[in-house]
Amino acid sequence: MVRLTVGELVVRPWLPTDLDAVWAALQDPAIRQWNGSGARSRAGAAEWLARRSEGEDHVSRAVVDTGGLLLGSVSLHSIHDGGAEIGYWVVPAARGRRVAPRVVDAVVRWAFAELRLERVELAHAVGNTASGRVAERAGFVLEGRLRQSYRYGDGLRHDELLWSRLPLDKEPTDI
Q1: In the chain, what percentage of residues exceed pLDDT 70?
Q2: Number of structural domains, the chain?
Q3: Which GO molecular function entries does the Swiss-Prot or TrEMBL record give (predicted)?
Q4: Model confidence over 75-120: pLDDT tens digits?
Q5: What domain range is 24 assigned to?
């Protein structure tokens, strides 16, 4: 995936010049809690950014507005055997504008068409209700609860809700 345009949103490769915006985003308590990037310093943010390069089993992109302002991050990871997991975060100033569901939907459609994926999973902590709304709006189907499945930014293991989307699922129409 080189670049996607979703209305006024642009999904593009990460650039070294994104460092200041990434560092600022990673200061947000919600991003720290629910994404657990581990970047607790500017140097850590630089390492996080360097790891965003594309690989065989992952694709990571910046989400920006048409003026280049960083709004968030989206990634497909654990790509193998026709499946992948999707992850994302949105900066506080962009929340409530349905940035995440629109971008998640666009990336999933791209993954089905271009990577020929057969399944994309989305997991989030039970307490992260905003991600549950993203999953619903982006056309994912709730499959169940994973007990104590992931250690989040607070250092504790949390139960997660597991959602999936298949190419045969009804595509969302009102994001």
Answers
A1: 98
A2: 1
A3: protein N-terminal-serine acetyltransferase activity; protein-N-terminal-alanine acetyltransferase activity
A4: 999 999 999 999 999 999 999 999 999 999 999 999 999 999 999 9
A5: 4-165
**Is the CB of residue 164 less than 8 Å from the CB of residue 43?**
no
Say what the pTM is: 0.94
Secondary structure (H, E, C), the chain: CCCEEECCEEEECCCHHHHHHHHHHCCCHHHHHHHCCCCCCHHHHHHHHHCCCCECCEEEEEEEECCCCEEEEEEEEEEECCEEEEEEEECHHHCCCCHHHHHHHHHHHHHHHHCCCCEEEEEEECCCHHHHHHHHHCCCEEEEEEEEEEECCCCCEEEEEEEEECCCCCCCCCC
Residue 53 falls inside a structural domain: yes
Residue numbers in the chain where pLDDT is lower than 70:
1, 36-38
Residue 172 belongs to some domain of the structure: no
Closest by CA to 121, choosing from 76, 54, 151, is 76
Q: What end-to-end distance do the CA atoms of the chain give, in Å?
A: 22
What is the Cα–Cα distance from 26 to 44, expressed in whole angstroms? 10
